[in-house]
Amino acid sequence: MFGSEFPVGGIPVMLAGIALTGLLCLLVRRALRGRGEVFSWSVALLLWAIAVIGFVTLLPTSSDTGVVYADERLAGCSWDIGGPAPDGFWIFSGGQRLLNTVIFVPAGALWALAACRWRAGRVLVPLGLLVLAGYSALIEWTQLEVASLNRACDVTDVVDNSTGAAIGLAAGVLLALLLRPWRERPGWVPAHGVSRAA
Question: What is the pTM of this model?
Fold first, then answer.
């Protein structure tokens, strides 16, 4: 499908993209600050976490990946769940499976924290697992289709990413019990029955 070199890549490009989207997410936080500190920060950081995942997984790790021709690309994803995986990524040590799990934890936690602001949080929180698992699957599909990314499509990555998202969602619910983002909801009525504006 693709017989050319991917136009951008390398660690410096990843870091530049992460920094730029971080600044953009600060603008999102500023735009949402009227909805409360917890909600505005959780949404802004959630968007940043999702962007970071994208930069780390959808850019080549080297600026010179070479040309990948259509007849050289992988025919499909690996279904060898739990099979051999490389160790570490860039400056991060540890097994690749651990890193694949950890990278989705912040997104899960921030999703839960943002969702708990609303009455529908009981539905929105578990929905987050489906959304983040779907995001992981989309990443793997892209890695398969865009061979010049020089990435391998592996179902194990989806399993590990989803596990990280689930851990993050659980942590986010616990964090919400401490920060109580529902107090920032318009018309929220505390235990003593006095309505509080957003």
Answer: 0.80
